[in-house]
Amino acid sequence: MQHGKRHDQGIRVIGIDGGGTKTVCVLGDGEGRLIAGSRGESSSLTSRPWEEVTRVLLSLIRDVLAQSGTEPSELSGVFLGLAGSDRPEDREQIKSWLEQELPESVSITVHNDAVTALIAGTWGEKGIALISGTGSIAYGFDPATGQFVRVGGWGYLLGDEGSGYDLGRKALAAVMKAYDGRGRPTALTKLVLDHLSLHDPAQLIRSVYGQTNVRTAIAEGSKLVMQAASEGDAVAVELVEDAIRELEALVRRAAEAMGIPLLVEPAEGGETGERAVPLVLSGGLFSDPVFERTFRETPLLRSGAFDIRLLMHPPVVGAYMLALRQQGCELTEGIKEQIGAFDVQSLWNGSSME
């Protein structure tokens, strides 16, 4: 891909997906061509200081403008899907700030990051996105009614059950309980200590609390839980099972709120049938094949109510599509094919922001 090359398609839009671990930004034209991309740190409004959030966002926007040779005055719109931006006042704060940084002609929309994953996985049709990354949330949309449904996603202090952070925190707690003699011995102890280059569980206090981004560092521990569970550690297996139950509960409630029938038995032949609604699975935990397979085997997921899809495009693609829609662009089959055939990862391969 050649940065700096202009395409004469008129519309230039930016899509941003900001999660609890990283923020991804792309710039594309009105015909489905993605031209530039950049990645940076988390821009979650619930876990980062305001100054850090704005620094990350402005840096990425400036980067993709520079890469593509686009002047700010040539930009048509920006769609931001940011973790922790559910409250109207939070969205308005981001929008007002960005309006001061960009020309008045640029339209700006701010939503939470779940909607970007949903649109990237369903192309705008009725469905539910279940995200289990640093945080967790179930988010549904029905274009026929305009209904949005949100379950969970209340942040690491009030919720995020079944997320990477939740799983990592419980793993650390299990290690400390075992160290005290209040809990069962677990293989997690050695895995955690080796991962952090420590010799004794008592050293975890300084190591964990001294992290620059504690939430992200703890969420990384979920990978160790998966490893221990795959090796048969009873404590880790229970933690994974608890996480799956929490995620199943998120989907169940979202489906109930959207009026989606939940079948008791699988449809005949195991097929989902006409009533199946897309359920898009996104986030780091679902990148683990064992976790994903185990989740698919829950009674709710085997009910035949859902067309289960792993997110095939990065959520930032959903932000780009929503940016196009806010410009009145129809997501034609040609645009979908153009986006679907493009390797989004190539936009930042080899970047120092990787």
TrEMBL record:
Output the Pfam families linked to this UniProt entry: BcrAD_BadFG
Q: Which UniProt keywords apply?
A: Kinase, Transferase
Per its UniProt entry, which superkingdom is the organism in?
A: Bacteria
**Membrane spanning segments where?**
none
Q: Output one GO MF annotation.
A: kinase activity
Q: Taking every annotated instance into account, which residue ranges of this chain make up the domain ATPase BadF/BadG/BcrA/BcrD type?
A: 14-323
Against SUPFAM superfamilies, the record matches this protein to: Actin-like ATPase domain
PANTHER family in alphabetical order: N-ACETYL-D-GLUCOSAMINE KINASE
| Protein name listed in UniProt | N-acetylglucosamine kinase
